[in-house]
Design a protein that fits this description.
- By secondary structure, this protein is mostly helical.
- The chain has one domain.
- It is elongated, with a radius of gyration of 18 Å.
- It comes from Kaistia nematophila.
């Protein structure tokens, strides 16, 4: 019971961390991004990747070590829809991460480097899409927790 509680707490806190990190990325992704703000964006994006990885581990921990047991989840198509939605979120996050890494590399080579407003806008659109997909994940999680799809 304690393991289930700790996994549930970790799962929820990691979701909140991801929401916070996505909001921070959106705040930092604005024209004129350079220097310290670009470095901060890189650190924030790394935290996002770490939090997402830990969220997956906590989530699967809940599936296989939680009180409901894996049978509650694996036979539920809503669970699989949630997994697919989270995987889509992960795929959406690849391009922004690659752009941020490239920008940081360019800034190390040229301290005056700034990504173009168009590049920043493109990454912002993807982060908005990630945020929307996270809403889909939350809706599916709420449905699944109530046994919808069983």
């Amino acid at each position: 019971m304690l393991v289930d509680l700790l996994l549930a707490i970790a799962h929820f806190l990691l979701v909140f961390a991801i929401v916070t990190v996505l909001a921070m990325e959106l705040m930092l992704l604005k024209p004129g991004l350079a220097g310290a703000a670009l470095e901060k964006l890189g650190r924030v994006d790394a935290i996002y990747g770490g939090a997402a990885t830990l969220l997956v581990l906590a989530g699967f921990g809940r599936v296989f070590l939680g009180l409901k047991g894996s049978g509650f989840y694996v036979g539920n198509p809503v669970f699989w829809a949630k997994i697919i939605a989270f995987a889509a979120l992960g795929l959406l996050s690849i391009q922004p991460t690659m752009r941020i890494l490239a920008w940081r590399k360019a800034a190390k080579a040229d301290p005056a480097f700034q990504p173009s407003p168009g590049e920043i806008a493109g990454v912002r659109r993807l982060v908005h899409a990630e945020t929307a997909m996270l809403v889909v994940v939350a809706i599916l999680a709420s449905m699944m927790a109530r046994g919808i799809g069983m």
